[in-house]
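Backbones bend. To wit:
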Amino acid sequence: MLRLKRFYERLCAAEAALAGTLLVLMVALIFLGGVSRVFGYPLNWSLDFATAFFAWACFFCADIAWRRNNLMAIEFVQDRLPAGLQKAVRLANYAIISAFLVYLVVMGTWLAWTSRARSFQGIPEISYSWVTASAVVGGLLLLITTILKLADELKGRRARPGGEDLL
């Protein structure tokens, strides 16, 4: 179990590093594409790569925010419920989120498969499946995070925004 926890921690660190790198590359490519266009040498492929990097970065960043409990939440009504009912609402939310993520992974896999022959407009050598695969990988990462949150909830541990655990 300790090995699995260490693997997950390394996966989370790699995910954060990759998300940051993709965001920086996306901004750099958009800037480079704009500058090159001003000088009369447009890089048509720069926006395509930036779009692909954006898709991947969105899913990675969503998982990071979900893991750290930094996503927006409106708990005005839920906070006024009795503790047992609050827990039931959280469990129901995790179940709904999990069902959606399973659907995302299944349909994302189908979309990646069906778009394998489609290529980028500016980069005909690269399949559009590389972009649609971000939904599959991102959905799996989000599903893992949701399952871990569900397990913590069932053990009586609830996390606060910012990643601190509430006991």
Observations:
- The beta strands are 158-159, 165-166.
